[in-house]
Amino acid sequence: MTRLTGTALRLTVFIGENDTWHHKPLYSEIVHRAHRAGLAGASVFRGIEGFGASSLIHTSRLLSLSEDLPVAIVIVDTEDRVRAFLPELNELIGQGLVILDDCEVIRYSGRDKGEDAHRDRGRKHGKKEDV
């Protein structure tokens, strides 16, 4: 079981939803590389409106012409592990914003791979799981 508590570093990458890496969504490539690097976790958040260096406002409103919505990828792990991952981003990010914040992890505990399989079997058999 993976555990992370105490002082950590939060890496946030702001890009556009339509940004790509070798014909794949860039956010997906970042998440997969973070996973391969063994980082504690990564999440992608899709914004409903925003602007960046281009000063062009992107919005999800129905009558807007823009569909390239802002996306934020958030990764939290120890400072050493996050900083070791930064060269991967240098290769991937052409346009965007990358920021680092000190943070404190109050609670983080991952599941063992066996726990996931056990939970999935319980769902298939209609068993209620404890949260």
From TrEMBL:
InterPro entries the record matches: N-reg_PII-like_a/b (IPR011322), N-reg_PII/ATP_PRibTrfase_C (IPR015867), UPF0166 (IPR003793)
Gene3D superfamilies: 3.30.70.120
One Pfam family linked to the record: DUF190
Family: Belongs to the UPF0166 family.
Protein name: DUF190 domain-containing protein
